[in-house]
Request: fold
Amino acid sequence: MSIRSHAELEKLRIIGRIVRLALDGAAAAVRPGITTGELDEIGARVLAQHGAQSAPPKVYGFPGALCISVNDEAIHGIPGSRALETGDLVKLDLVAEKNGYYADAAVTIQVGEVSETAAALVRCAESAFHQAVRTARAGNRVSDIGRAVEQETRRCGFHVIRDLCGHGVGRTIHEPPSVPNYHDPRSRTRLTEGLVITIEPIIAAGTGRGVLQPDRWTVRTADGSLAAHYEHTLVITKCAPILLTAA
Reply:
């Protein structure tokens, strides 16, 4: 969506803050032994306390409030009985809605002490996001975001999962434009003031090829390598974007 009024911006700020609170609550509970289902319940309770609801069940019928993906699961992992172990990477991804407005964010959490590769992958996803944010200005191309993500990811020695990307958001989960995590020279779409999008590097320690699993939700890396995900919803301006889901 493109914001047309201060009232719309305020409604997006509200749901953005709620998404942040729910993710922070779930992230704070991450520890060896807790199940992904228990983390999901924590996030869902925070949403309910603030009068919001998870969007994926509402829009797509996803079987959980949060998408919780572990290790080689890149996105859309279904929460359940899996218990986390020391060394895991757990991705918490949440889209929520309140009063018809949506916000989306994700973070990758390290469970206890992790490998050097895992820690570097988490740092890379975040640094790729911040590099991309520098290009997210009205008048620049959407493909400038992808170039920044891919360049930083390659600098770190990793690969983007090219089939997975950011997107417009605001009045539903997925809206135009698509925001790839790589440079597409054919793309001429420009960022406009007030446009609401996600930037979300989804990267892998291996080849970067993803495979949809039989549950028809979870995407794993094809080679079993670790994956990381970092995301915020933001509003494009002529200067630095407004991060709606940041702390």
